[in-house]
Amino acid sequence: MRYSLKQLAVFEEVASSGSVSKAADELALTQSAASMALAQLEKLLGRPLFERQGKRMALTYWGTWLRPKAKQLLFDAQQIELGFYEQHLISGEITLAASQTAAEHLLPELISNIDSNFPELRINFKVKNTEKVIDGIKNFDYEFGVIEGRCDDSRLQQEVWCHDHLVIIASKHHPYAKYEKVSFAQLEQAKWVLREQGAGTRKIFESAIHGVIDDLDVCREYEQVSVLRTLVANGLYLSCLPYLDVVKFIKRGELVALNVPELNMERTLSFIWRADSVENPLRDCIKREALRMIRETKRDM
Question: Does the pTM exceed 0.85?
Answer without folding.
Answer: no
